[in-house]
Predict the structure.
Amino acid sequence: MNQRPSRSDLYGEVDRISHELWGVALEIANKPELAFEERYASQRAVEYLKSHGFEVQTPYLWLDTAFRASFKLGDGGRRVAFLAEYDALPEIGHACGHPLIAGMSIGAVVALSRFRGLLPGEIVVIGTPAEEQVGGKVLLADGGAFDDIDCALMVHPSDRTEIVTSTLALFDVTFEFKGMAAHASAFPFQGRNALDAAIMTYCAISALRQQLPSDVRVHGIILEGGRVPNIIPDSAKMRYFVRAPQIEMAHEILKKIAQCAKGASLSTQTDVEIHVADTPYFPLLSNERLCSIFAGQLDLLHVPYEMRRDGKEAVGSSDVGNVSGLIPTLHPTLQVCERGVTCHTRGFASAAVTDRAKEAMVVGTKALAGTALEILSSPEIFKEVREEFLSRTAYVCDRLDVGHIS
Ligand SMILES: [Zn+2]
Ligand SMILES: [Zn+2]
């Protein structure tokens, strides 16, 4: 075998290791771990990659459960990264199917690694913890993890196969009100009620919602609102997510809801502290050239798909958006279960460990590996990917001054 590997050679390699990949995915699925606690999952992926000759750094940057595994195929060429997620959700376990993401990404690189010397470039897996909370990719991006990468590829399980996906920008904000405790019956006039401030903020934001564009999402909870009814609460805490199709729009709305909290604090003579998490999620900008290559692989594999959803349909947010602002990024979804069994449900967690999910994982691994094969083999194709990225990256992931809301 002394020529460029064919697609069928590559698919054959994926079939050969498919039982091993499913073993890794199932073991991770059976041991759900929350954000930044994914020790078992990251170690399992790392062990597997090391056993196939990958050089691995873990912890990676300053994240204990992140890793970077690399394998040089040949001189020159592109450095293609595959992203592996493996965090679970509280109480409902692996209800976003992240073990399948890990399985597909590590499977694609191990299959490609068989062609050392026959392709230029390097393949990398970046283990990205804490997608569901905090945003490991935001921290990795800030730490420079993607600075020397040419493009990033991953596939997310779903109840539908959709090629060009989009997500909303997201800010995570906490309001903390401080008042004055007092006996709620004997001396209520001595108190300043922090819970009232939280309730008024909640109502003010609910009223504001009518004036917000329909594709914006603002949703929150009260984390603390007093201990017992006979003490005027001197402390209350709320947490909100603010989401919008563009980061600038989300930031404008963040400023408006901060005004709701400030108004409530003024009315109740309490103090408010506003803390904005410094890991906002940027909206996902799917690279359409990468999408078309991936769709071509699904055609060859006889897998039906939708190119994109109706723009009015609801979407969530993901830290992969921050990667997509830095380098060309592929993030399609792949159907692993019946339509209507949506992620973040117990039903999805069960569906993601069935034989059907295994078959989907193998197909997704082939399509991912095949997409990378096109990029690694053809400088012209990568040039098109890069040009499309440069022409469409309207925003730059410069830090907004998110800690200061005036
Ligand atoms: Zn999720
Ligand atoms: Zn997910």
Observations:
- The CA atoms of residues 299 and 305 lie 9 Å apart.
- Residues 96, 98, 131, 156 surround zinc ion (ligand 2) (CB under 6 Å).
- The chain is about 40% helix and 15% strand.
